[in-house]
Design brief:
Helix content is about 50%, strand content about 5%. By secondary structure, it is mainly alpha-helical. The protein has a four-stranded parallel β-sheet. The model is unreliable at about 325-343 (pLDDT under 50).
Length: about 350
């Protein structure tokens, strides 16, 4: 706060004056110092427009005003919005990376899809029509919608006409429950499904105390996503989304490795349960990019850092920041309430 210029300091003070305190708050009257600063607000009708406006502002700041990309931060309320903003900025030509501090690891799609596949194989996630289709068409299944339609048709043709009618997706779930469930279909149609069935069966049949790192690696190794992202990383112009996905996967394997080392012999289900049910964010170490990038993060991910430009996305009066909740937490009564002892 003490490094804010006068304009930013005045804005901060106008906001913090609305937050109650309990015998504190004199620091809020500190004057702003430093160079001239500027505060602007922009009203967007929706998430998509907000992302495109943020991209335009960043590109103008970089190419017109000369602000380095790594001196720009975009702050969002939730990890899911962080991922969406980062993807949108990358698509708009803004090099962006996520700071995973203040996020649960499974908020990253690349990590969540990997954990979901292992959880399906170990029985933590029930094998239903929906989860079977999700496994085939997800990041580590890699089937396109056209391939899925062809698989549904092939299963329908191969079905015994004397058997009771079943939806095609229910037949997919039944086939995925067995290693050779798709073996009678033509390889040109069922190649991807056969590979997923083998992966799920390997995870399912692994001994009870198999290290969770081995199960994650079985899903990762040779998957379409791994091949695509690794090829991008080795190319002369790696795609930011591939690098972000690899960062999340590396962070997942680090966390799994720490679990295996700290609890030797523990069942992989213990790690999966903890990760899927995590509500408190973990501080996750991810590699720093080799080129300047805009940081997209939740507030904890940029705490203690300085930037020339900060964009706070998704402000919503009465929702975020929630001044009422902050007031109660700070020890002051909510609006209309009296402190104890007041007449």
């Amino acid at each position: 706060m003490h490094r804010h210029g006068p304009a930013i300091r005045a804005t901060v003070q106008a906001i913090t004056e609305r937050i109650g305190t309990a015998g504190a708050g004199s620091q809020r009257r500190a004057p702003g110092v430093g160079d001239a600063s500027q505060v602007e607000s922009l009203l967007a009708p929706g998430y998509s427009r907000e992302a495109s406006d943020i991209a335009r502002i960043i590109l103008d700041a970089h190419y017109v005003d000369g602000v380095p990309f790594d001196q720009i931060a975009v702050v969002a309320r939730r990890g899911s919005r962080v991922s969406a903003l980062s993807s949108a900025l990358s698509a708009a030509g803004v090099p962006a990376r996520t700071a995973m501090v203040g996020m649960t690891l499974v908020e990253e799609p690349a990590a969540k899809a990997l954990v979901d596949m292992v959880a399906l194989g170990r029985g933590l996630t029930p094998l239903t029509s929906a989860t079977a289709v999700a496994a085939l068409t997800g990041l580590y299944g890699g089937m396109t919608q056209q391939e899925l339609r062809a698989l549904r048709f092939a299963l329908r043709v191969a079905a015994d006409p004397d058997d009771p009618y079943q939806p095609a997706d229910a037949m997919i779930a039944q086939a995925l429950a067995h290693r050779g469930g798709f073996s009678l279909l033509e390889s040109s149609v069922a190649k991807a499904a056969v590979r997923v069935a083998e992966v799920v069966d390997d995870v399912r049949s692994a001994p009870a105390h198999t290290p969770v790192t081995d199960l994650l690696w079985r899903v990762w190794d040779g998957s379409p996503a791994a091949t695509l992202w690794m090829e991008s990383a080795r190319s002369a112009t790696p795609h930011p989304s591939a690098d972000r996905a690899l960062d999340a996967v590396v962070a997942l394997f680090r966390q799994a490795s720490d679990f295996v080392e700290s609890q030797p012999g523990a069942s992989p289900e213990l790690f999966l349960d903890a990760l899927l049910g995590a509500e408190i964010p973990d501080d996750v170490l991810v590699p720093e990019p080799a080129w300047p990038c805009v940081v997209v993060s939740t507030p904890p991910g940029v705490a203690g850092r300085e930037f020339q430009m900060v964009i706070v996305a998704g402000l919503d009066e009465g929702v975020w920041p929630d001044l009422q909740a902050t007031r109660v937490t700070a020890g002051s009564p909510p609006d209309g309430a009296r402190p104890p002892g007041d007449p």
